[in-house]
Amino acid sequence: MSKDLKILVKRVGEKASIETIKDTLEAKQKIVNGLIEAVSFNDDVLLICNEEGKIYNMPPNLIFDNDIIAGDCFFVGDDYKNSGFKSLTNEQIKEIEEVIKDKSVYYSPLNLEKNIDEKER
């Protein structure tokens, strides 16, 4: 039986939102629309993104230094002691939101629709 995880989801062109998902591979893959890749965000938080987001030309979502997170992604607690994931605390969510507000790529609805249409061709 899988536990529930409180995560912070950052969809392309949207503000981050708090969601609860089951701690299953399928639930994580559904959010990122493909294979998951875990990237260390800080000591106790992971950023989960699509491993092939750039290969499939997913639209940019977040910009960190000289790298781009392409496609939808989410943040989750790093339960490194048990080799897994854990729910984010409210404090962690506030910290993440503060960091990503200046790193998010926003689109006008028309530009986002055009980008998605081109990707599907």
Describe the structure.
This protein has one domain (4-120). The chain contains 3 helices and 8 strands, in the order ββαββββββαα. The chain has helices at residues 25-32, 90-100, 109-120; strands at 4-10, 17-22, 36-42, 45-50, 60-64, 67-70, 73-79, 84-86. Strands 1, 2, 3, 4, 7 and 8 form a 6-stranded antiparallel β-sheet that branches. The longest helix has 12 residues, at 109-120. The mean pLDDT is 90.
pLDDT averaged over residues: 90
Return residue spans where pLDDT drops below 50 for at least 5 consecutive residues: none
Order of helices and strands: EEHEEEEEEHH
Give the DSSP E fraction (strand runs of 2 or more residues). Answer: 35-45%
Largest sheet: 6 strands, antiparallel
Main structural class: alpha+beta
Percent helix range: 25-40%
Count of helical regions: 3
| Oligomer classification | single chain
Report the span from N to C terminus: 40 Å
E-strand count: 8
Number of domains: 1
Give the overall shape, derived from the CA principal axes: globular
Radius of gyration: 14 Å
Defining key terms:
121 residues, alpha+beta, 3 helices
Please render the helix and strand layout as text.
Blueprint: E1 4-10, E2 17-22, H1 25-32, E3 36-42, E4 45-50, E5 60-64, E6 67-70, E7 73-79, E8 84-86, H2 90-100, H3 109-120
Antiparallel strand pairs: 1-2, 1-7, 3-4, 4-7, 5-6, 7-8
